[in-house]
Each structure stands twice: as C-alpha cells, then as structure tokens.
C-alpha cells in the first residue's frame, strides 16, 4: 500500500512540470502502463489530476483549491511563536513579529525583553512604516511598481536625524534590503533603540511576515546587536521552513 501511495504522489511533481501522457507517466514511475493508468484514474476521481482532450494529464483544480485552503488556514503567528520565545531566551532582547495588511505594517506578536528597560510597542499597533526594520523587509518584497506607488504616498516624519527623509531615500533603502535579505533600524525611530530583522517566506518565496530583535543602547550597542543577525536569520529560516512545509514542526 505504501508503495502505491508513493507512486501516486510521485505523479504530482511530474505533472507540475507540464502535461504528460500515459507513457511518460509510466516511464517516470518505472511501471507498466496499466499500473500508471490505475493510479491516474484514482487521482482523477479525487480531482487531483485532469485528463485533457489530447489524452494528456495535468494537475487538477482540486489540488490548487486544497493548496489555497491550506494557505488561508495557516497562522504564521501560531507557527512562529515558539521560535520567537526560543530566540528571546537565547538573546534576552525584545522580539517582534509583523505583517503587512492594507497598507499598514502591524505587530502581531511580541516577546518582552528580560531587561528592565523595555520597548513601548503593542500587538496590533502599526509600526513606523518608513523606518522600522520589519516594514522595510515587508515592503521591499512588493513588486517594483507597488513599492514606488506606496513610497510616493507616504509621509516621512523625521523622528530622529537618522529617519528616512523622502521617497527616493526610502526606495533606495528598500532596494538594498531586497538585495541583502535583512534590514536594520539603527536609531531611525527612537535614537536610543536599535533593531535587526529578517524575513519569513512562504512556499512561493514571497515574504509573509518579518521578525526582529530590538534593544536600547543602554543594554547593547548597535554593533553588539548586529552580531545577533545570524541567529535572527536562522530563526526566520526555521519559521519559514515550518510555515511553508519544507521542514517538520519542532516539538513544542
């Protein structure tokens, strides 16, 4: 039975490459055409493959519907939380998780610092979109025309002398973030607070959320915080792997 299931599932990545006829499927599986036909008929009955008028098979609409339903039911916060807690235990600093929704970047999770000096930030509160590290990552992943349109609409308050001053500077920063795959806010929102962030990606490679570690200067310097970047990126990669199904969930 397990061999039959394995063969049937092996058909799906083959058809993801494009339509294939019965002979091609049988050759790829290394089985007789009659065996391949039985497997294809079963998958067809469940809507996972579709037989075209030219007798070739392609992936069925039911497969895409299931994938879409699964993605809609994924809760990135639920998946990420244990990883955020573990990161906080390792470094001691404030850890945030943020998403981009309806032209705002919102915090959806937070693990407090173990130090007495803490950040004023709340779950559900929008971030300072032109300076926050998580915002840079989420907006850098947008298509270029969307990035430009959004940048032109934004206001650019000068929270500190290090704040992003205008759209051109913001687009330049987003291009840099997009290329390097991580972002910082080194005193751009509050002069005494620094932040380093990494993206969380879905199965299609698009950024679905961003996570960050933040700390005040009185606890660690900006240079010291930047040494945590590899740890932050590893945590983001672990969340991405679990969210996209590339790696199994770790025991909670």
From TrEMBL:
Looking up Gene3D superfamilies in the UniProt record yields: 3.30.450.40, Winged helix-like DNA-binding domain superfamily/Winged helix DNA-binding domain
TM region(s), chain numbering: none
The chain positions of domain IclR-ED read 62-245
Q: Which UniProt keywords apply?
A: DNA-binding, Transcription, Transcription regulation
Name this protein carries in UniProt: IclR family transcriptional regulator
Q: Where is the HTH iclR-type domain?
A: 2-61
Q: Which domain of life is it from?
A: Bacteria
- The species this protein was found in: Streptomyces werraensis
């Amino acid at each position: 039975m397990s061999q039959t299931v394995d063969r049937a599932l092996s058909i799906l990545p083959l058809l993801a490459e494009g339509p294939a006829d019965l002979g091609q499927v049988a050759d790829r599986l290394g089985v007789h055409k009659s065996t391949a036909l039985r497997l294809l008929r079963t998958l067809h009955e469940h809507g996972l493959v579709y037989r075209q008028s030219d007798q070739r098979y392609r992936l069925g609409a039911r497969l895409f519907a299931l994938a879409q339903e699964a993605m809609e039911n994924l809760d990135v916060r639920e998946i990420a939380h244990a990883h955020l807690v573990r990161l906080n235990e390792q470094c001691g600093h404030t850890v945030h998780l943020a998403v981009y929704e309806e032209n705002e970047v919102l915090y959806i999770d937070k693990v407090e610092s173990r130090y007495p000096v803490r950040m004023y930030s709340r779950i559900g509160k929008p971030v300072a979109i032109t300076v926050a590290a998580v915002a840079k990552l989420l907006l850098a992943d947008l298509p270029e025309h969307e990035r430009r349109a959004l940048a032109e609409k934004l206001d650019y308050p000068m929270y500190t002398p290090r704040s992003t001053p205008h759209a051109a500077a913001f687009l330049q920063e987003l291009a840099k973030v997009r290329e390097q795959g991580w972002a910082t806010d080194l005193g751009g929102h509050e002069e005494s607070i620094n932040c380093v962030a990494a993206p969380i990606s879905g199965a299609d490679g698009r950024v679905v959320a961003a996570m960050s570690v933040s700390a005040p200067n009185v606890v660690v310097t900006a240079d010291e915080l930047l040494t945590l970047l590899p740890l932050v990126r590893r945590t983001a990669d672990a969340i991405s792997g679990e969210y996209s199904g590339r790696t199994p969930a770790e025991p909670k």
